[in-house]
């Protein structure tokens, strides 16, 4: 009897303790709920410098990170970096520096083509390293930076399964690693990244309730935020571009954006000379693939090239561990004969030849990383310059009796199914008057040389030369005041384009102020969206002309 009484007493004590603990937990949960304000955060582009991580795989990592952040219920994640006219307070950027799936996987980086079939991956270990930064958008201040490292060997990982962001779908080009150690390594890295961001965000930024409303107790009121100018996103690091002097032509004559192409078909804006070409999908984007020695010509009439012009072509390289393909841009005469060529080949070699004479050859300082690279030509009355990415590889004086009327693209693939010859985005444009001439004659500058990725307002490094010229004009004329005005094409909603163009104008203004010490009172920023086109929005060339920045004298 006494024994039963003691047991009953112990049960009562345990019950009281459990009730008390539940009350405490409920109180804490209620407090957390009442204080559960969210921070507005934008995810910048995740880049890759790792040989085995393609740009599409890096994009997929970014998509998964965006979902993982949203699933914490701590953040309003802005995929397009702006929403309802309000900018993100914080921005996350990242670079994949190591990506080691273990056993060799396909080098196609997510290339989808019916004839290639399913890609198999037999890796038993995996490792990923990412450099991640948490940035305060308004001042460009880095709040937190960390190198995230995650490993997985034979499905053992350095985190418990509950910390693997398993509620996030493995997306895009990463699908080739489904149910493989690389998948778990990526999930571990994402979990560590989410933890770093959550701990690194200052408390004052948790000031939104629901999706868009400010918390009443927030230190910043809606009126104060509305009064603040929406900050432009910081520019890319332009250190590599200080010797880069390429400026794209102002009037686009031909541009192949591939938006109306169909997968598996011949690219409809080109004429076939010979070879086998078809449209394929790499991740979410269309490319033209050549599977045999061949050449094609853009569908534009033969005519003498303008005195000043530029030509650009993107190509995809699978990195230094595979044989490099051959990419040619030929100049063509009025008889259809090749009379000049700019060639990139074997991962790091370039050459320029005109009228059968070799004029320049250069080996790049490093072999191509896996991903997208660009060939560029800039011709004037005085010279022809050629570039690969940010490196100028040729600079030759004007050639007498050199009179091309068009272009031809030629390709020599290595016929390796894991290393297809892929290219896209050929852009031919006429060069116009100098910026100083435009400003003196018309009171404004129209430039297509300030570049942004689709949907982004981060200035690309290739914009260095154009921004340097604008900065020099402002420094040479201390009384000059300019309105920096952003314009888009008609793709996307009116509201999105208006906000995007405003943020791009802000980015340019902020860059000029911080880089060239221009007084803030000398520069204004205005976004017009798609409301002031200078060309049709019915063709790729017209849309390319409409995407521009104008600097109007005040």
Which features would summarize this protein structure in a list?
alpha+beta; Rossmann fold; 60s Ribosomal Protein L30, Chain: A; 3 domains; seven-stranded antiparallel β-sheet; 34% strand; globular
Count structural domains.
Answer: 3
CATH architecture of the largest domain: 3-Layer(aba) Sandwich
Q: End-to-end span in angstroms?
A: 98 Å
Number of strands: 30
Précis, in short:
This protein is an alpha+beta fold.
Q: How is the secondary structure organized here?
A:
Blueprint: H1 2-34, E1 39-48, H2 55-71, E2 75-78, E3 82-83, E4 86-87, E5 90-100, E6 111-112, E7 125-136, E8 141-153, E9 156-157, H3 181-200, E10 208-209, E11 213-214, H4 222-227, E12 251-255, E13 270-274, E14 277-282, E15 285-290, E16 294-298, E17 309-317, E18 326-332, E19 338-345, E20 349-354, E21 357-363, E22 371-379, E23 383-388, E24 391-397, E25 406-412, E26 421-430, H5 435-442, E27 444-447, H6 464-476, E28 482-487, H7 494-516, E29 523-527, H8 540-546, E30 548-553
Parallel strand pairs: 1-2, 1-5, 28-29
Antiparallel strand pairs: 3-4, 5-7, 6-14, 7-8, 8-9, 10-11, 12-26, 13-16, 14-15, 15-26, 16-25, 17-22, 17-26, 18-19, 18-25, 19-20, 20-21, 22-23, 23-24, 27-30, 28-30
Helix pairs in contact: 2-3, 6-7
